[in-house]
Design brief:
Elements (H helix, E strand, L loop, with lengths): L7 H32 L14
Length: 53
């Protein structure tokens, strides 16, 4: 039993999915980097929680 070669449509779809995946990974990396920089900043303090009374 031989496997049929991929259709040209599948190759284009794979390329598009790969591009979207790489953009998603880059976006997550940027957000993570910004978060690390903000939290490791010496001026960072956790906001105080005000009680509702």
């Amino acid at each position: 039993m031989t496997l049929k070669p991929l259709h040209e449509l599948h190759q284009r779809r794979f390329g598009r999915n790969l591009g979207v995946g790489l953009l998603l990974v880059a976006f997550v990396a940027i957000i993570f980097g910004l978060t690390v920089v903000k939290v490791t900043n010496e001026d960072f303090t956790v906001p105080a929680v005000e009680e509702l009374n």
